[in-house]
Amino acid sequence: MPAARVEAVAPGSPAARAGVCVGDEVLAVNGEAVRDVIAYQLRADDAHVELELRRGGLERAVTVDKAPGAPLGLELASAVFDRVRTCDNHCPFCFIYQLPKGMRRSLYVKDDDYRLSFLYGNFTTLTRFTEADLERVVSERLSPLYVSIHATDPDVRAHLLRNRRGATSLRWLELLLDAGIEVHGQVVVCPGVNDGPVLDDTLLGVLDRFPALATLGVVPLGVSAHSHEPEMRAHAPGEADAVVDLVETWQPRYERALGRRLVYASDEYYLLAKREFPPLAAYDGCPQHENGIGMARTFEGEVRAALAGHTVAPTGTRTGFFAWVDGAPADGYRAPKSHQPLAAFLAQGARNSAVTTTHLITGELGARVLEPLLAVLPGDVRLLTIENRFFGGNIGVTGLLTGADISAALAIAPAHDRFLLPDVTLSRGRFLDGTTVAQLPRRVEIVATDGAALVRALKEQ
Ligand code: SF4
User: N or C: which end of the chain has fewer CB within 10 A?
Assistant: First the structure.
């Protein structure tokens, strides 16, 4: 029977009052075995909750009474209590194949599980989706979901996923949309494989077969120095330009046919093509913000609003299922960023008030977004732009910087200046290479990765 280990119990919560302890295993809720946090949450919402627990090998029952809908106050070790459904594809552009050896094990897990799509926004190819999954998604309204399309041509899709089922698994997408499930799609573009006429055909295929798709994000593949795939290469600037052109050609077509833009090119494409980002309004609320679409304009808007004294809710915060559920935290890239909020970190030691220069630690792509804002940011603010030597290749996003690369840059930076580190570089307080902020050669302050938090931190100077 699947079981969920209790990682934490909120002090004073209904579960704490009922005697649930860290280390207990939840076997059943209200008499039913639960296999993931979605099923757990549905049952834990009741006012009267009976938990079957295992503690030290012995089973016991605990009753919790609380207001209906109120959280039990438990954090569970994982979101999926049976096994994460792993993917049976072998995409040549898969970033997991491009990771160096020796990183945290959780980073090598290739999941293709619709439950993680619903919980965390992970993209799924649907190659392992089943009739029973469809029934559950529709009956429990597990919406929105995120689906990797890549190409609508069956042969090209099967080639890209290196899986014959890739040719047919988009039939599930049709059924999900027919059932009214909100689905966001993405195309990872590999130059010479699914760009140009193939991308054009995919955008036509979406209009033809999936007109109810909520949005479609078009993102470039990342190629690290650890890739062993000769067919995979970075975009040339002209190729990136052509992708942006195609997306912008299709937006008005979709608008005419469906009344909405539907397709968006990622920020990285505009940087690669050296083109201006579209205005914030052209992102229609940034439904694929976490996929790097509209992030730059959002960040700029947050900075300008904060400087004008307006309060803005950071767009980077997920507002989905995990905004309210008490259950398992995401792991890997989506884990909570830091155990060390800025205020707590600042309390560790008084900053030298004579320091006048602040350095913003950023990756090469982030630097190009921050550069135009330096003139409006308060104080003497400079960029500490860090090349990603750990992954190499064309990897330039700030979120994939490692402690080793940041350390090397800090070691030769002015010793007494101030350094701000965006929390997107951290996962549970660690960098991707497993090192921590405490191991850096300079004192850095962790700042949430949104424009308002950056302005607040700079005003604390
Ligand atoms: S579906 Fe995703 S996890 Fe699986 S091989 Fe392709 S890119 Fe990697």
Answer: N
Residue 135 tokens read as 């029934």
Counting atoms of ligand 1 from 1, which one is nearest the CA of 88?
A: 4
Write out pLDDT tens, residues 6-50: 999 999 999 999 999 999 999 999 999 999 999 998 898 899 999
Q: Tell me which amino acid residue 24 is.
A: D
pLDDT in tens, 211-264: 999 999 999 999 999 999 999 999 998 999 999 999 999 999 999 999 999 999
d(C-alpha 126, C-alpha 149), whole Å: 9
Strand partners, 36: 80
Residue 391 and residue 413: Cα distance in Å, rounded?
Answer: 22
| Alpha carbon distance 114, 109 (integer Å) | 15
Nearest CA, atom 1, ligand 1: 89
Q: 431 by DSSP, 3-state: which?
A: coil
Q: What are phi and psi of 216, to 5 degrees?
A: -135, 120
pLDDT tens digits along 340-358 = 444 334 434 445 556 689 9
User: pTM, whole model, 2 decimals?
Assistant: 0.89
Cβ(87) to ligand 1 under 6 A?
A: yes
Tokens of residue 18, six digits: 């009922």
The 10 Å Cβ neighbour count of residue 116 is 24
- Antiparallel, parallel or unpaired: β 183-189 and 4-9: unpaired
- CB of 125 sitting under 6 A from ligand 1: yes
